């Protein structure tokens, strides 16, 4: 069965270009399309494995649509948009997006990002294993992080960051290294994605009144501190 990607954009030229590229270079994927937010919500019944999402849609803006999608599914969402400000990127990631690509974009790079996100999302579970760091418990089999009895509501990339750092305690990773490890390709120029995800992880720990074990090593990167 082919992996399904849902592209949501009101620009028919963009959708036509993506259809040609998928047919030519990504034949293992099936491309679904929608030209508006409501149409995209209807397409969720097809259970896409990944969503490409524009921000400027005619009925629902992409940020609001992402929040509605996240109430239904946790599949990776890549913003594909002409909105290029840092504020837009932070808002998109804060709404539940996993990645942010600005137009104009390289089809080759987009294809690599799609493959990396799908590969990460479909990784098989590890053997059952639980690690405890004070009040924090990580269930690597269930992909869950808890503080005392409260299970944190983590997005896929947030959990993967916690998993990788906690499995390598004390080791410092740059933002570029973390991006390459979690997303599976060169992260140069995308450091803000890592920064925003870690900010949101820390906020979840703060809400549980526990100090985040993800520590900033200034000028270098991040590490997990037991």
TrEMBL record:
One of its GO terms (molecular function) is transcription cis-regulatory region binding. InterPro entries: CheY-like_superfamily (IPR011006), OmpR/PhoB-type_DNA-bd (IPR001867), Sig_transdc_resp-reg_receiver (IPR001789), WalR-like (IPR039420), WH-like_DNA-bd_sf (IPR036388). Keywords: Activator, DNA-binding, Phosphoprotein, Transcription, Transcription regulation, Two-component regulatory system. Pfam families: Response_reg, Trans_reg_C. GO terms for cellular component: cytosol; protein-DNA complex. SUPFAM superfamilies: CheY-like. One of its GO terms (biological process) is regulation of DNA-templated transcription. This is Two-component response regulator.
């Amino acid at each position: 069965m082919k992996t399904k990607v849902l592209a949501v954009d009101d620009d028919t030229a963009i959708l036509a270009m993506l259809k040609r590229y998928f047919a030519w270079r990504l034949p293992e994927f099936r491309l679904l399309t929608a030209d508006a937010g409501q149409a995209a919500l209807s397409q969720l019944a097809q259970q896409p494995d990944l969503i490409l999402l524009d921000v400027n849609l005619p009925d629902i803006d992409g940020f609001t649509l992402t929040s509605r999608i996240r109430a239904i599914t946790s599949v990776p969402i890549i913003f594909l948009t002409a909105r290029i400000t840092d504020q837009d990127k932070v808002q998109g990631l804060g709404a539940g997006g996993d990645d942010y690509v600005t137009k104009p974009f390289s089809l080759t790079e987009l294809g690599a990002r799609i493959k990396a996100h799908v590969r990460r999302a479909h990784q098989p579970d590890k053997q059952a294993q639980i690690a405890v760091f004070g009040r924090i418990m990580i269930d690597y089999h269930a992909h869950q992080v808890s503080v005392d009895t409260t299970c944190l509501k983590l997005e896929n990339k947030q959990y993967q960051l916690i998993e990788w750092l906690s499995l390598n305690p004390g080791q410092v990773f740059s933002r570029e290294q973390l991006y390459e490890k979690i997303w599976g390709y060169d992260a140069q120029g995308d450091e803000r994605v890592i920064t925003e995800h870690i900010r949101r992880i820390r906020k979840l720990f703060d809400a549980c009144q526990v100090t985040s074990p993800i520590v900033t090593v200034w000028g270098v990167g991040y590490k997990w501190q037991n």
